[in-house]
Design goal:
alpha/beta; binds pyridoxal-5'-phosphate; TIM Barrel; two-stranded parallel sheet
């Protein structure tokens, strides 16, 4: 595995910025560095390179990184981007700043109970692949209404493109999510990863979530839910 340090993260961030520009995006597209599957030193390298937020997928892994997050002394915003389980929310409440994967009423209720007023995104399922979570686009309005009614701060929507079919296969889903963001009057649209960020930017993403393109390949494969 290649060494991840401040210089390598800086260089990789620059390459990702260039990809965003070439896809027609600008500085209004933020990059969320995804540090799942890497040790705490990768968070430190990202912070050293100027990153102010990270994304993590797994509750246990995030809890194991508590020390480094505390060392960063609140200067880093933690986005939870993995599937949320109701029985884990209590442990996550003091570590997570933004929950990006709210996809059902029960999980929204649990977040409202453990972290009142928390910043959340609703995850919409556009890939139709099992195991990724997300509410249906048909169920979105009802869930959005509920999330707001229980006092959560609904900032936007999040989606994950399909794993198979290449980046182009994500386009129609990304477009539908951006339309829903506008229709609901929300501000953030979290879509696009290392493999499909260009399509996401073209379709109006405001935040791409990038792991591999910044830090190389990781030992924990995406979407293997190690907590089940
Ligand atoms: C792992 C993951 C990412 C980052 O994926 P890369 O392909 O490594 O950029 C983004 N979003 C979610 C939800 C993920 O699980």
């Amino acid at each position: 595995m290649t060494v991840v340090d401040v210089a390598s993260v800086r260089a990789a961030l620059e390459l990702v910025r260039e990809r965003i520009l070439r896809a027609g995006g600008g500085d209004d597209v933020t990059i969320l560095p995804v540090t799942k599957g890497f040790g705490p030193e990768v968070i430190e390298a990202a912070v050293g390179a100027g990153c102010t937020a990270i994304g993590e997928n797994y509750a246990q892994e995030l809890i194991a990184k508590r020390d480094v997050l505390e060392r960063c002394n609140g200067s880093i915003e933690v986005h939870f981007i993995g599937q949320l389980q109701t029985n884990k929310v209590r442990q996550l409440a003091d570590l997570v700043d933004v929950y990006e994967t709210v996809d059902r009423m029960r999980i929204a209720d649990e977040i409202a109970k453990r972290a009142p007023g928390a910043r959340v995104l609703i995850q919409v399922d556009t890939a139709g692949e099992s195991g990724k979570g997300g509410c249906s686009i048909e169920g979105l309005d009802e869930l959005a209404e509920h999330v707001v009614s229980i006092g959560l701060d609904l900032e936007g929507l999040m989606t994950v493109g399909p794993t198979s079919g290449g980046p182009e296969s994500a386009r129609s889903g990304f477009r539908a999510v951006r339309e829903a963001v506008d229709r609901l009057g929300l501000s953030s649209c979290s879509m696009g990863m290392s493999g499909d960020l260009e399509v996401a930017v073209q379709e109006g993403s405001t935040q791409i979530r990038v792991g591999t393109a910044l830090f190389g390949s990781r030992s924990v494969p995406a979407w293997r839910d190690q907590e089940r």
